[in-house]
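Pasting as-is:
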Amino acid sequence: MEESFSIAICTYRRFDLIELCLKKLIGLMERNQIFPQILIIDNDEKNLLKSRINNYLNKFNSISLFVEKNLGLSHARNLAVEKCKTKYLAFIDDDAYPENNYLKRLKDYCDNLEFDVLGGSQIPYSIRKVPGWFPSGFSKNWASGFNIVFKVNTIIQIGGFNKNLGMKGTSIGYGEEILPQVLIKGSNGKILMIPELKVHHFINPYKLSKRWQYRSSFCRGRDSWLLFNKSRPSNRDLIFLFKEIIFSIKGVKLFYDFSSINKFCFELGRFYGGIVYKKDIK
């Protein structure tokens, strides 16, 4: 029986991690007798991945490998949408793998619920202990790209993923999965947040430092400007963003509280992004 959903894994030169993802995913498929189409999008024009996963490609007809030569996660996601033949398309990051009940839950949601976007949660893991302050990655408002499901017709109708947003190789970029949600929500689409749909998400050790998290928050703030339908900010916008920076300081808490500093870095990034970005969200 053909499933109502496919699963896409967009990847760029993280061979060991995507092999783990595939191994875990195939194990669940065989154990649960649920066989969705698996679309692997290699965002590296050298296509070095093929030789690493040839055994999976030869053994399982449900697994397909495509190469997207245009560098950028948005390009890779758009190719996955283009190749998808099912009603829903789930994205899992190449450095994540599904929880044991992931496939059963995903099948149940796609077969019995109606939605335009569905967001799950993560179980972070690393080769070092994940500190207690580390962000959960789950929001009640927006689904995160490491574990997200789109209704294919909906994502096509809004024009797919914006090529100016998201990672480009190893260059940090964010928001490519948020903008579609902003547009879908603006057109009264249905967004569901279900934390029970979980993936194990590998956290590179360098990301466990607060310094890296502050840099990441700055970049998220910078790229968030592209989620707004404006060109350069007006004086009122700049005043508002500057007030947000001041408000986020919260006195002396800035100097010792992770959440306060993180918020400050995000607002600083928003102010920076508001100045340097031109209108380009179509």
